[in-house]
Design a protein that fits this description.
It is built from ten helices and no strands. It is an all-alpha fold. It folds into two domains: 72 residues, no CATH class; 158 residues, no CATH class. Helix 4 packs across helix 5, helix 4 packs antiparallel against helix 7 and helix 7 packs antiparallel against helix 10. The longest helix has 41 residues. It is flat and about 65 Å long. The termini are far apart.
Length: 242
């Protein structure tokens, strides 16, 4: 099978350019009228735009020719197997490693550790978020295999989150809802969702539009619950020491 890595790369470059130009324009306006950064720092920021542009373009091209086709093929192959229930544990592992490698998650846990003066270590947050995402992907695969409507999980999940907020601190509540956003980043969306869509397309009686989508909603929910539960454990530990 011939793989043309740079097929359609020109269109990707154009899309990224059109997306970055407004941001660059806002920065230049702020620089000339408000910021007035030193010339050396100003040009360093402009130099940083180049690897940003190339990085985004190469990432999206890789998603187009690599992540999407491979993810769809994995999902379709596993759904066609005799033991299709293996999608559940495999989904958990894929969700865990996708969150573990998610750049936005890394930035969040770094900032949390820094702002909390090390009282909330990076590894604790990382494993909590990764387990939450893994559980959500496994739950999505089970929902797809059994044909359970999405709102059966969404409504109880957010009601549980609201209940946990009452017993959590303001700090962990704020971190939790940011966690839901960063966990559903490019690694999860581009690869794990492709696996879910491929599986839904291969399963008999399943509609990819109804059963394949909706996974990202669960991915955004379970990290919130995971961090809120982590906050309760922290509060109990502090109460036990006091």
């Amino acid at each position: 099978m011939e793989i043309k890595i740079f097929t359609g790369f020109g269109d990707i470059l154009l899309e990224i350019g059109l997306a970055l130009i407004p941001l660059l324009g806002f920065f230049l306006l702020f620089q000339f009228f408000i910021l007035h950064l030193p010339r050396a720092r100003f040009f360093n920021i402009l130099k940083g735009v180049i690897p940003t542009f190339l990085g985004l373009a190469l990432f999206l091209q890789g998603v187009k020719v690599g992540f999407f086709p491979v993810g769809s093929e994995i999902g379709a192959t596993m759904a066609a197997m005799r033991h299709s229930w293996l999608l559940i544990p495999v989904g958990f592992m894929l969700g865990f490693v996708a969150a573990y490698a998610e750049p936005a998650v890394r930035i969040l846990i770094l900032e949390v550790e820094k702002v909390s003066s090390g009282s909330i270590p990076q590894k604790v947050m990382l494993y909590a978020l990764s387990l939450g995402v893994g559980f959500s992907v496994a739950l999505s695969m089970a929902r797809m295999l059994l044909g359970i409507p999405l709102w059966y999980f969404i409504i109880p999940g957010y009601l549980l989150a609201l209940l946990l907020i009452r017993f959590s601190t303001k700090t962990f509540t704020a971190i939790a809802f940011d966690s839901g956003g960063v966990a559903s980043g490019p690694m999860t969306v581009t690869f794990v969702m492709a696996v879910a869509l491929g599986a839904a397309d291969a399963l008999e009686g399943r509609n990819p539009l109804l059963d394949g989508f909706g996974m990202i909603t669960l991915v955004a929910l379970t990290p919130i619950l995971a961090v809120l539960i982590l906050g309760l454990l922290y509060n109990r530990g502090q109460g036990g020491r006091s």
